[in-house]
Amino acid sequence: MDLHFLGAADSVTGSRHLVTIGGQRILLDCGLFQGYKVLRERNWAPMAVDPRDIDAVVLSHAHLDHSGWLPGLVRQGYRGPIYASPATRDLAEVLLLDSAHLQEEDARRANRYHFSRHDKALPLYTRSDARRALAKIVALPPGKALALGRVSVTLTPVGHLLGACSVHLSDGQESLCFSGDVGRRGDLLMPPPEPAQHADVLLIESTYGNRLHPVVDAQAELGRIVRDTMGRGGTVLLPTFAVGRAQALLVLLQRLKAAGEIPDRVPIYLDSPMAIEATELYRRHRRLLALRPGEALRMADGVRLVTTGAQSQRLAQSRYPSVILSASGMATGGRVLLHLKSLAPDPRHQVVFAGFQVGGSRGAKLVGGATEIKIHGEMVPVRARISSLEGLSGHADAKELLEWARGLGRAPNRTFVVHGEAEAADALRTRIKDELGWAVQVPQHGERFTI
Fold first, then answer.
1. Cα–Cα nearest to 270, from 250, 298, 248, 297
2. 325: helix, strand or coil
3. What burial letters (b/e) apply to 342-370, b meaning 16+ CB within 10 Å?
4. Which of 75, 229, 272, 387 has a Cα-to-Cα distance from 82 of 20 to 30 A?
5. What gap in Å lies between CA 269 and CA 383, rounded to an integer?
6. Using an 8 Å Cβ cutoff, are 449 and 18 in contact?
7. 244-268 pLDDT, tens per residue?
8. Are strands 350-353 and 175-178 parallel, antiparallel or unpaired?
9. Which residues make beta-bridge pairs with 4?
10. Angle 127-134/86-113 helices, nearest 10 degrees?
11. CATH code for 218-388?
């Protein structure tokens, strides 16, 4: 078995792991690099291997840091199939087309207002590239083995996100398990992760490898923030990941209204076409969720759906107190920037981040206390209150990751800690070594191993 770490090996983004097993070259995930510029620039580089030499791609789930470079892979010559769970296939269609649209819009805006360093800004990929990639996705139901030559591929649900799975590869002589992103026990939307099959080699994520989730009541905290902000005559802006986090926040807001903990008259806006589409997919796949009966169908009841750019512009100019959910969750692009530009200078408002913020992202800078941020080439002062809403992370913490790893049964021969910032990855490596006694290491970007 040969492993080539092409992404998420020295960072929490850009998940791409090439496995050669049983004569097959299988790419596990094909994600976008996000956050720091030095990482984002990797998206523009030719792949370290010729995409035409890859036999198959298997997705763990649809988040862009795991699927978002598929159009780039196809653009560079990949011709094979892409396997994913049915729900992941459906979500990927929403995410990839939206990502491509944003790439095109950002390039168009940069050319119009001349804030690109290049003579002509180009999109990383286009909607045409995204459609070509989507046409290659083949649905693989969890628990059903797929034969790729001599290699068996099996997906196992891990919570975290609709359709998210770990990936198990075996050629009958050696085997590998890739965790993807592991979810939490007691997650608002998703059931607990299912145990994975034993494998000789384990690739395990470490997003929260150095942290334990605090015991907090996210619903109560969100209710307090909304009441306090309304009392100041301000608006609550929730930069949200369109898939997963937006739906969790909608459920919490519906529960708060039903309990009378926030006024029923408070207007709630969902300003993200992608989040609107994803909410419909969550309703369609509601049997995969852990919600109370009927909650999936009611999560958008009374919510004002903002579908057009003109509606979003008018909402950004409104001064009426409200709650606005808008993508992206790390404020790296999308319509949320219109609202940040409008609301950030005013101390009456509150911006609440409800998810992990990759280092170098606009969201991470705001949470870190930035007093001004650049939006569309302009420096915007930050006087609004900035906070994080704990308790909504879809990632397992360090303890939960170890619990999931123990579920494999006997120890793998080798364990590689991936998909984490340096401190988190090394902290999980240490815990796996000390508490489980396993042979474990953190690979670096571009490293190869023959096992």
1. 250
2. strand
3. bbbeeebbbbbbbbbbbbbbbbbbbbeee
4. 272
5. 22
6. no
7. 999 999 999 999 999 999 998 999 9
8. unpaired
9. 18, 448
10. 170
11. 3.40.50.10890
